[in-house]
Give the backbone structure.
Amino acid sequence: MNSKSKRFWSRNKRFRLMLTLELAVMLPAAALIYVNFHHLKSIKGDKNVEATIHRDFQYVLSVAEKKINDRIYTMAEETRDLFPSPADSELDKEKKLDSILSQNPRLSHVFFFDAEKGLAFRSPPQQMTDRFFREEHDRMSLMFGGWFGMEGKMVCDGMHSKARGMTCYGDQVKRASGFGYMTTAFFTFPQFPADRIVFGGASFDPDYLKQTFFPEMFEEIISQKMAEDRGNQLAMTVFATNEDQDPGGKSLVASTGWGEGKPEVTRNLDDVFRGLTLGIKFQGTSAEAIAGRWIQQGFIILGALSLLMIGGLVLTYRSVSKEMALARLKSDFVSNVSHELRTPLSLIQLYAETLELGRITTQEKKEEYYRIIRKESERLGKLITNILDFSRIEAGRKEYDLRETDIAELVRNTLDTYRYQIEKSGFEFETSIESNIPTMKLDREAIARALLNLVNNAIKYSADEKFLNVKLYRTNGTVKLEVVDRGIGIARRDQAKIFEKFYRTCDPLVHDTKGSGLGLSLVRHITHAHGGEVEVESAPGKGSRFTLSLPLAAEADREANVIASGAGA
Ligand code: ADP
């Protein structure tokens, strides 16, 4: 398969993989996000969140009204138990009523009506000095006296028909302190037969209702609701339903934290506090603001999810591409290496057999055959050493034997061994080796192998101009080893990749030249293990310069690096 069709198949495979991934994961995730997005939009449009909050508030207010009524009825029942009986003399009745008033400062008036004996209406004597209060007393006793005289039976029957045998009557009143609201509970006595027109009543003091009763009820209702929900802090108020009935100002009582603004939801009270309206809202915020924030959060979460999804797609695409490229490189590697192993082996076999048959007569020819066998076994040896080194590095088991070494001598000796071979293959070979470099701790074998890999590449990848220059010099605390050629060069985009394992460029000369793609990755590993760096400068068609920089640094540093680079290739 040529490289073009290989690339086509790999691209096709990648496309199919991405398609599967998108269909299996991305499509459902995207659909989910899309549906949620529309759902949020419709929630926003229909004001669903506000409606839910309002429904909840309406429920809270209905429970609140029941609680408030219950409390008043219970207090009225407690008072009723203290009431006189019809058998008592008029004087005793008044005494008993006065004693009820003195025990219950929360009451403004109490009365007892017996159709046979008339009405006893009492108010606390100490309050009668207040003009407004006295007027209220006179007005009520007169009004109740007349009313009960005419409609006592109807009032009594009305109460008997109720579950608790009671009814309430609320009204605006005026006191020295201003306008207030007073409610009066009317009750029958269960111990008397239903056909006797006897009943009593007690009026709850407006100041008590305003300063004690409502604030306590609000606190109780709010804290119970907060314990159930733990949401935003609530505030409650009660005000006159009809504004003209309350010239003193709209709000009769408001819980702490009511602040400014209108109630979120209201409920007109019936029964005990007819004429008053309960209101509720959040402290410092509104249902609209809460809904807005809720929806905004929803959109932000969806946006973040979409971004994550796109990020995930990009990452998956990149890692899939990387994995597939690596898989391709590996398969190339296997075919290259097998070929590289087979070629020298078959040559060795061929020449050894020819020699064995004794067909070669001239000494010169024999020597040439021996040389070829030696050269091919060397090539084989080098390849196997590279592969073994590579597998040790991959397994994290590669160790370097660092000893004090004269690097100039090491480089000179290594090059001298190959000089004849290099020059024989038509290369102009120059070396420039500084000799005053101090000894450094090196793994001799590893550095020699790195140098040979670079030299070998320079020879392999030079076409028309056969030139090789190896330089060794010292500069600013580092020793530099340069291998320069005027070969085919390396494109800019490939320059970082050639140091990766298995990587080979697409140049036709590279394609026709055998190689494993391991050489430079070993060079890099060896240099890192010595605490150094390897760099390449190259231009296609002009040649390349590979530079190893090895620091003349403290030993400790280098050892640390040996451990670090031994951990990964
Ligand atoms: P191999 O030579 O076995 O393919 P290497 O790791 O030594 O593997 O090199 C990786 C690739 O870098 C080579 O395949 C080649 O494309 C490129 N390369 C290395 N050295 C040179 C050079 N001196 N000139 C041009 N290309 C080079």
About this structure: Residues 453, 457-458, 461, 485, 487-490, 498, 503-505, 507, 510, 515-521, 544 surround adenosine-5'-diphosphate (CB under 6 Å). The first helix runs from residue 3 to 46. Confidence is low (pLDDT under 50) at residues 554-560, 563-569. The first strand starts at residue 107 and ends at 114.
